Amino acid sequence: MRRLLLSLVLMFTALSALGAEVARPKIGLVLSGGAARGLAHIGVLKALEQQGVRIDAIAGTSMGAVVGGLYASGYSVQELEQLATTLDWQQALSDAPPRKDVPFRRKQDDRDFLVKQKLSFRDDGSLGLPLGVIQGQNLALLLESKLAHTADTRDFDQLPIPFRAVATDIANGEKVVFRRGHLPQVIRASMSIPAVFAPVELDGRLLVDGGMVDNIPLDVAREMGVDIAIVVDIGTPLRDRKQLATVVDVLNQSITLMTRRNSEEQLASLHRDDILIQPQLSAFGVTDFGRAQDMIDAGYRATRVLDTRLAELRQAGDDAGLALARSPRQRTPVITAIKVENDSKVSDDVIRYYIRQPIGEPLALDRLQTDMGTLYGLDYFDRVQYRVVHKGDDHTLVINARGKRGGTDYLRLGLNLSDDLRGDSAFNLGASYRMNGINSLGAEWLTRAQIGDQQELYSEFYQPLDVGSRYFVAPYLDLGSQNIEATLDNDPVAEYRLERYGFGLNVGRQIGTYGEVRLGVGKAWGRAQVRIGDQDLPDVSFHEGFYELKYSFDTLDNVYFPHSGEDIGLTLRKYDKSLDSDAEYRQWLLNLDKAISVGANTFVLGGRYGRTLDDTEVVTSSFVLGGARELSGFRQDSVSGQNISLLRMVYYRRLTPRSYLPLDFPLYIGGSLERGRAWNNDNAFDSGYINAASIFLGLETPLGPLNLTYGTNSADEHAVYLNLGHTF
Predict the structure, then answer these.
(1) Annotated catalytic residue, options 56, 109, 110, 209
(2) What is the DSSP string of 117-185?
C-alpha cells in the first residue's frame, strides 16, 4: 500500500511538472528595422538574458534580421556587442576591399590625376549603371564569415532559435517571408535599402528591404505560433521641414516614411499580454554606427524599465541547443574540398589561384576575407561570395563569382589647374579607358590620353602569362609632348616644346599585391623646338633606344590621403647606341613616400631624387619639378634639370567627423615643407637648394580628392593650385 501511494505521488509530481512545461507560454521576439538604430536590439537581448527570459522564436526585418539572425544562429549577446562596437562599419558598408588587399595593377590606376570614380561599359558599348550605390560586397562577406556554421541549415526552424526574415519583392511590392534558404543571403536581402544597397536576386525575385512592407513583423511571429510577443520598435517620428537640412536628414526621413505606416498597423494588433519596448532613439540617425555603444545602452535601459513585467516570463535553466551553437568549434569546419562557381570573363583557374585555404585544415576566415577582397579588386565581378556546404564529414568551400552585369570596361576622367598669380597658368584634362577580361587569363588593354600643357597618348596591352598574373608581358605605345625650360647660368633662356614618340616591350613579375618588377626595352624619337625665347637657338632632333628596369612597391592605405604605408618607385635606364640611340648615358629616378599617423594627425615623409650620370643633350634628358608639394610656388613642371632632388614633409588633419556610409566627404587641412634642387651636367645651371612651403584644404569627394593649395618658396615664386584627382 505504501509503495502504491509513493508511486501515485511520483506520478502526480511528474504530471504536474509536465503540465507546467506544457503551460509555459511560447515567447517570440520581434525586431524591427531602422539601419544603425537597430543596434539597440543588442541591448534589449542583453536585458532579456539577465532577466532569464528564454526566446522561442525570432522574426526580424532589416537590421532586426541581422541582429536576430546572428542571435538565433548561436551568437551570444557579448559577441554581438563586441562585433557592433569594434567593427569597421565604414569598410563593411562599402564595396571596395582594403587597399592593401587590392591587386597591384589596380593600385596603379590611382597613380595619375584621374578621378577615382569610373564609368563602366558593357561589351556592346552601352553604359552600365548599378542597381544601388552599394553592391554589398563587404557586407555579404561579413555575413558569410559570421554565419559559416549555418551553411547546411536550410530550414530556419532547425536553428538553435527558430527564425524568420522579411524582404520585399521590388517588382510587385509583395512581402517575402523567409522560412528557408541560405541565412547570410536572406539577411542581406532583408536589409537592402532601395537605391542605397543593390537588390538581391533570389529564386527569380529581386529583393529589397523588408521595412517597405512589414517593418515590425509581429504577424510573422504570430504565424510561428508564439503566445506572447516581445516587440522592439526602434522607429522615430517624422522630422519637420526645418529639421531637414542635409542629405543625411533626407535619407533618415525617407527610411522613416517608408516604414512608419506599416509599423503602426502592426502595433495596433498587439495583444494584452504582449510586451512593447520602444528605446529612446530620437537622438540617433540611421547612419550613426559610430555610436553603437550608446544605442545598445538605450535598448538595455528601455528593457530594464519593464523588469517587473519580464520577471513573469523568467525560465530557469539554460538552452542546451544554444550552448552547443556557441561552441567555437561549430564555426570552424575542416575544409575537405574547394569548388568554384563562376560566370565571369576570367577562368575558374584564375579564381582558384587566389584562394589560399589549405585542404584538410580548419576554415581560415581572416585569410579567406583577404583573398575575397583581392578577387573582388580585380574588377571583373559584381560580387564574390563563399559558403561552406556540409555533407557528412565533408565540408566544401564554394566560391561564387558573379561577373559584372554593368560591364568590365572603364572610363575615368581627370583635371588639374595651377596659376602662379602672375598671369601664367597650367591646365591638363585627361582620360583613360581600360578594357578588362580580353581573354580567360585576364588580359587588359589600357589607353590613356591627356591634353593641355602636357599632352600624352599612352596605350599598353597587358597579358598575364599564368593564372595568377605573376608573370606578364606588356607591349606599349607612348606619344607625348611637354614644355622644358632651357637655363644658362641660372637664367632661363628659352622654353622648348619637347615631342617624343616611342614604343617598347616590358616583361615583369608581380610581387603579391604590393609590387612588381619590370624589365623592358624601348625606342623613341622626336624633336624639341623653341616655343618661347631666343628663336635662333637650334632645334633638337633625336633617336633613343634604351633598356629599363622598374621596381614599384605600394602599401599605402589610401593613395590620396594616406594614414599608413609607403610607396616606393625606382627606375633605371641605360640608353645604348646598339639600340640606335644617338647617345649613351644612364639615368635613375627614385620616388619615396611614407605615411605615419599619430592620433588624428598624419605626416607623409618622402621626396624624389633623379640623376643623369653621363653627358648628353639637356632638353631631352631633363627631369621636372614644380607644383603643389613638388617645390610649391612654382608652376606645374616648370623646374627642369638633368638632376633633381626633393625632400618634403606633408602634414594634414581631418576636420570633419567620420561617416559610415559612402556619403563620407572628409575635409582635411594641412601644409608642407619642402627643399629641392635642379642642376645640369654640361652647363653652369644649378638652382641651388630652394626652400618651399604650402598650405592646403583637401576634400575627398566621390570623384576624387579636390585640393586647393597656396604655395610659396625662397625663389620668390607664389602659386595657387586646384587639383582634382591628384594629391602627391
Answers:
(1) 209
(2) --EEE-TTSPEE--SSSB--HHHHHHHHHHSGGGTT--BGGGSSS-EEEEEEETTT--EEEESBS-HHH
